[in-house]
């Protein structure tokens, strides 16, 4: 069975910080773009795409997501992409998916996103789990625990927030500070995700469903994804607060 996970030797890794001394640089492109992005008192659609220690197939997911957002009317200047390899020929990357860049991006969005905006966060690539805690494997040296990710989201308050995560061992947090968000995952915190069929099915439906809601699109994805039909994916759709 193929899963979207990697076999890391977790015992030697503290994923709250870094595996070794390599620190991916923060992109000047990202810094410049964030400086030029400001609140405007209008209803805008923003997207953040994060490639988590990606391989070629995951880069295909990022490319498909980027094209889907454009086709749904998202402006290029409102789409931010970080990937573990930095620059990419497949999409306009804003730099490396490292702790510094993600911290800068999410912290900046606290001041960029207004309460009439929509924010869509997409994460694809690799995830892991250690000591009953799941984390996002950002690159060969760094990882991000979900509690840190959710802490950052709690300070970003859009009108509508969507987080779609197709990596293994995906965690979801329910909190009164996340009521604007809906969380979509290809699997749960105890299981791996199967291949790339789930995100490809989702983005194909997303780009072709002009009037359908995201929950409707996700429900259609669960019906049509081959991995889910075989019981190899365990998708979740959960609202951020009860």
List the helices and strands and how they pair.
Blueprint: H1 28-35, E1 45-52, H2 56-71, E2 79-82, H3 99-112, E3 118-125, E4 127-130, E5 133-137, E6 143-145, H4 146-153, E7 160-165, E8 181-185, H5 197-208, H6 214-224, H7 226-229, E9 236-239
Parallel strand pairs: 1-2, 1-3, 3-7, 7-8
Antiparallel strand pairs: 4-5, 5-6, 8-9
Helix pairs in contact: 2-5, 5-6
Written description of the protein model:
The protein is of the alpha/beta class. The protein has helices spanning 28-35, 56-71, 99-112, 146-153, 197-208, 214-224, 226-229; strands at 45-52, 79-82, 118-125, 127-130, 133-137, 143-145, 160-165, 181-185, 236-239. The chain is globular and about 45 Å long. The longest helix is centred in the first third of the chain and has 16 residues, at 56-71. It is built from seven helices and nine strands; from the N terminus they run H-E-H-E-H-E-E-E-E-H-E-E-H-H-H-E.
Total number of domains: 1
Q: For the report, how would you describe the main beta sheet?
A: 6 strands, mixed
Form type:
globular
Tell me the series of helices and strands, N- to C-terminal.
HEHEHEEEEHEEHHHE
The count of strands amounts to: 9
Main β-sheet, spatial strand arrangement = 2-1-3-7-8-9
How far from one another are the termini?
35 Å
The CATH first-level class comes to Alpha Beta
**Unreliable stretches:** 6-17
- What is the correct CATH architecture? 3-Layer(aba) Sandwich
Radius of gyration: 17 Å
Strand-residue proportion: 15-25%
> Structural class given helices, strands, pairing?
alpha/beta
